[in-house]
């Protein structure tokens, strides 16, 4: 026992001796090491001879392309694919590297990067008070850096910012305005019909672009079986870059290049997957989901809910074509349009809902019969009656007139909880239900 005790005492002594020795491993203080790291990061940013290609992935979703050129005077020049103006004209602002909870890269004057984070909904179309949930202060983690790539994480919304070294040709393309040429792709929104297709080589794709969420959905037929692919995208001087590539047999599409736009014929062209094609309009889906209309109608019945639309019908390229957002009931304001299946055994409800400052309420509306679901996937609505007194010739009357069009509607499921209801007559009118 005595010998064991002395042995343990010896080990303890050695252990503490080792601990005391570890305190001298770092010859410099933590502050000195941190400042050295910040200087190293700044050196890497500044010494990229042709600047940096950049992509930011906001916390609210989507992806946006940028170009940065940093100098050693804490100034950065940038381009952004957010708008025609930011793609064509560079903007200079300031930046700094600072020791916060982690080493951080901060863009500290208002820049194109701040546009994505602006809390004013009118600036970027995001959420009131939050914008697109993007960032302009980023944490730096050493293990996310290589010689040609730097990745950062937003300090507030955890946006990802990825920089890759630009080539001389890429830097020249930005200054020559090629990014602005790539934004010609946004003209796809000028096609009036809801459905659009493009043929690239042997494959015809239905193309659906959501410019708010920066997503592209491609749908095609493998024999008679529909296939779908969805990816985020951003713009570069070369064109549209997919965050994830589409692989369809022998064809791989990583994005679209050589973008052209003919305003006289309303035709967008581009190359992708080794082929060139032009976008054309269609009046029905490339593959009709035959069960979608019945599924749309049945969902609120099973959940006890309803379908709501903020803007009502989009018609011939015009959002809220009937101006439902301007509706009032005495001093109460418009809240949303509702479709509620199964209000009674005889009818549904299609109506504007108003808000009086305390609660929402129904003043008047239409009572369609439960829809007829056709074998080719359409829902057809017919009138059964009304609730209250419908203002003659107003937004509610015009909305119901379109709803009761005998051609009916295709229901396009756009997410687990959203549908677009598209006119089967000409696909030039639709309403989004959430």
Describe this structure in words.
The protein is α+β, with helices and mostly antiparallel strands and 434 residues long. The chain folds into three domains: 30-176, Lipocalin (Beta Barrel); 181-282, Beta Barrel (Lipocalin); 291-433, Lipocalin (Beta Barrel). It contains nine helices and 30 strands. The protein has helices spanning 2-22, 30-46, 84-88, 112-117, 121-124, 168-175, 178-182, 292-303, 395-403; strands at residues 52-57, 64-70, 75-80, 91-99, 103-107, 137-145, 149-154, 160-165, 195-200, 203-210, 215-222, 225-236, 239-248, 251-262, 267-272, 275-278, 280-282, 307-309, 313-315, 328-329, 332-340, 349-355, 360-362, 365-368, 372-373, 378-380, 383-387, 409-415, 418-423, 429-433. The protein has a nine-stranded antiparallel beta sheet. Strands 1-2-3-4-5-6-7-8 form an eight-stranded antiparallel β-barrel. Strands 19-30-29-28-26-25 form a six-stranded antiparallel beta sheet. A hairpin with a 2-residue loop joins strand 12 and strand 13. The chain starts with a helix and ends with a strand. Mean pLDDT is 92; it is low at 1-26. InterPro entries: DUF4302. Pfam families: DUF4302.
What would you say about this model in short?
The protein is of the alpha+beta class and 434 residues long.
Task: Quote the beta fraction.
Answer: 35-45%
Largest sheet: 9 strands, antiparallel
**Chain oligomer state:** single chain
* Spatial extent as radius of gyration: 29 Å
How far the N terminus sits from the C terminus, by CA atoms, comes to: 78 Å
**Shape, per Cα inertia axes:** globular
**CATH-derived architecture of the largest domain:** Beta Barrel
Count of DSSP helices? 9
Number of domains: 3
Structural class: alpha+beta
Average residue pLDDT: 92
Residues in helices, as a percent range: 10-25%
Level-1 CATH class name of the largest domain: Mainly Beta
- Spans of at least 5 consecutive residues whose pLDDT stays below 50 are 1-26
User: What topology, given as strand order, has the largest sheet?
Assistant: 16-15-14-13-12-11-10-9-17
Kindly state the number of beta strands: 30
CATH topology of the largest domain: Lipocalin
